[in-house]
Design goal:
GO molecular function, one term: NAD binding
Pathway: Nucleotide-sugar biosynthesis; UDP-alpha-D-glucuronate biosynthesis; UDP-alpha-D-glucuronate from UDP-alpha-D-glucose: step 1/1
Strand content: 5-15%
Largest sheet: 6 strands, parallel
Protein name: UDP-glucose 6-dehydrogenase
Structural class: alpha/beta
Radius of gyration: 24 Å
Enzyme class: oxidoreductase
Helix content: 40-55%
Strand order of the largest sheet: 3-2-1-4-5-6
CATH architecture of the largest domain: 3-Layer(aba) Sandwich
CATH class of the largest domain: Alpha Beta
Catalytic activity: UDP-alpha-D-glucose + 2 NAD(+) + H2O = UDP-alpha-D-glucuronate + 2 NADH + 3 H(+)
């Protein structure tokens, strides 16, 4: 029986291994992590992450050929294929601080694999890693190999949160990169055979190691660039009276461009986009490619600009101050159908409003109060370190309350900021919301989910990203 072990029971490792276990009943799959709390959650009825369809898959396989364990060394030593899906946070100090990936956790995983292995292994990079990480890992493994043969493969994930299980069931492509040697090619075929249980052969792409590593960074950079492009256009639309939805529809009907990732918003978030572009920038700089690095820097700059622009719209619309005013924040996750808050634009928007002494009342259907308080009091990039290395009980931000529904959040509020496109925010009884708010009542729609005209008929002053401005906002500055 082939045995697979995955080090790291997070957003990538957990769902990916659950689907492999479901689709390959004759393969034994173990997911290991040093976090006792996380493994306990995977073994309980309350999984540590929310992802539509995940619970059903886990329940079908858990205890049969899918196991979650803290006995890391035993499962690694018994495995034929070891996936490594550990954190690769952005460095906060030293060489490459603020851009380079911190490979501390990767290196310690590689040393542990070398230490406990008694048989040949295929080691698979599953977390997003900078180009040439495989080379470093290879050196650690071969110098500590005790005669054991290790083959390194790069198998980056291309999951979108909220649709991760569907993406795993029916992927656009599975990418496997390996060495162009007989051993390397054999390892590629072994991993390919796992995915071939359910993925059509023409969708399993094989490349050399460096192409696979770089393809992941490139894919995320291209997607983020599309979002920054449409967000840059949204600022111009507001200035000229154009409607960004109409512009992006017109652009997206060009088959060379296509309609996906052309929705204007308050900005992109998630665990990968910013981190991967920073990584790409660092690699470009290390290779003397300054102009290329500057090009990708601009994608992040426009994203930061969009969040600042949104905060400035809120403050300038409300008589140039939100000090002491209650602002309802609807949605905190970086997108709908996930509880993930990593790099969510809501963090920067909330911090911007708190900087002007606003009182925030926050509601998100999937994000806990503890997580929101943690995010608002944590330093940038700290979120990407393993949970046991994060601040244990961050000081609560006193001007923030987290409530149980949108009506409670908006009660007596001066304004509402919609920061996540949860479907329920489209269906709210906005007349009821309006009746319970301070007047004038403002809605700042950072996701273009509401019908602005209907809300204006009720009496709201509405700001929608990239849409013709409400007369109230016409003479207000968009940037500070």
């Amino acid at each position: 029986m082939v045995k697979i072990c995955c080090i790291g029971a997070g957003y990538v490792g957990g769902p990916t291994m659950a689907v492999i276990a479901l689709k390959c009943p004759l393969i034994e799959v173990a997911v290991v992590d040093i976090s006792v709390a996380r493994i306990t959650a995977w073994n309980s009825d309350q999984l540590p992450i929310y992802e539509p369809g995940l619970e059903e898959v886990v329940k079908q396989c858990r205890g049969r050929n899918l196991f979650f364990s803290t006995d890391v060394e035993r499962h690694v030593s018994e495995a034929d294929i070891v996936f490594v899906s550990v954190n690769t946070p952005t460095k906060t100090q030293g060489l490459g601080a603020g851009k380079a990936a911190d490979l501390t956790y990767w290196e310690s995983a590689a040393r542990m694999i070398a230490h406990v292995s008694k048989s040949n292994k295929i080691v698979v990079e599953k977390s997003t890693v900078p180009v040439k990480t495989a080379e470093a890992i290879e050196k650690i493994l071969t110098h500590n190999s005790k005669g054991i043969n290790f083959q390194i493969l790069s198998n980056p994930e291309f999951l979108a949160e909220g649709t991760a299980i569907q993406d795993l069931f029916n992927p656009d492509r599975v990418l496997i990169g390996g060495r162009e040697t007989p051993h390397g090619q054999k390892a590629i075929q072994a991993l390919k055979a796992v995915y071939a249980h359910w993925v059509p052969e023409d969708r399993i792409l094989t490349t050399n190691l460096w192409s696979a590593e770089l393809s992941k960074l490139a894919a995320n950079a291209f997607l983020a660039q599309r979002i920054s492009s449409v967000n840059a256009m949204s600022a111009l639309c507001e200035a000229t009276g154009a409607d960004v939805s109409q512009v992006s529809h017109a652009v997206g009907t060009d088959t060379r461009i296509g309609p996906k990732f052309l929705n204007a918003s308050v900005g992109f978030g998630g665990s990968c986009f910013q981190k991967d572009i920073l990584n790409l920038i660092y690699i470009c700089e290390c290779n003397g490619l300054t102009e290329v690095a500057n090009y990708w820097k601009q994608v992040i700059k426009v994203n930061d600009y969009q969040k600042n622009r949104f905060v400035n719209r809120v403050v300038s619309s409300m008589f140039n101050t939100v000090s002491g005013k209650k602002i309802a924040v609807l949605g905190f996750a970086f997108k709908k159908d996930t509880g993930d808050t990593r790099e969510t634009p809501a963090i920067d928007v909330c911090k911007g409003l708190l900087g002007d002494n606003a009182r925030l009342s926050i509601y998100d259907p999937q994000v806990t109060e503890d997580q929101i308080q943690r995010d608002l009091s944590m330093n940038k990039f700290d979120w990407d370190h393993p949970i046991h290395l994060q601040p244990m009980s961050p000081t609560a931000v006193t001007q923030v309350s987290v409530v149980w529904d949108a009506y409670e959040a908006s009660k007596d509020a001066h304004g509402i900021c919609i920061l996540t496109e949860w479907d329920e925010f489209k269906k709210l009884d906005y007349q009821r919301v309006f009746d319970n708010m301070q007047k004038p009542a403002f809605v700042f729609d950072g996701r273009n989910v509401v019908d602005a005209e209907k809300l204006r008929e009720i009496g709201f002053i509405v700001y929608s990203i990239g849409k013709p401005l409400d007369p109230w906002l016409k003479d207000m500055p968009a940037v500070a």
